[in-house]
Amino acid sequence: MAQGWESKSVEGQQAEAEVAASQPKTQKPQGNHGADAESRRKRQELELQREFILSQRTSSPHRRSALANALADVEEKLTELGWTLHL
Q1: Up-side HSE of residue 83: CA atoms within 13 Å toward CB?
Q2: Looking at residue 25, what DSSP letter applies?
Q3: Does 87 or 78 have the greater pLDDT score?
């Protein structure tokens, strides 16, 4: 019984292999999957930093100045990654 089951399993695997071999292979884009993921992660991190900076409230002029500088820096880095401000 087990031997007959195994041979059917092998036949099924061979049939699947033949079908897979006869079908055209889809070309997966080669290249920067890791770089794309890293770029998306960095962009998301910068967007979160931007949101955090914008959420800060202070009456201190020095703190406001530091936040404005930090916001300009984050937005510059985002622009380098292709980010645009959506209004």
Answers
A1: 19
A2: P
A3: 78
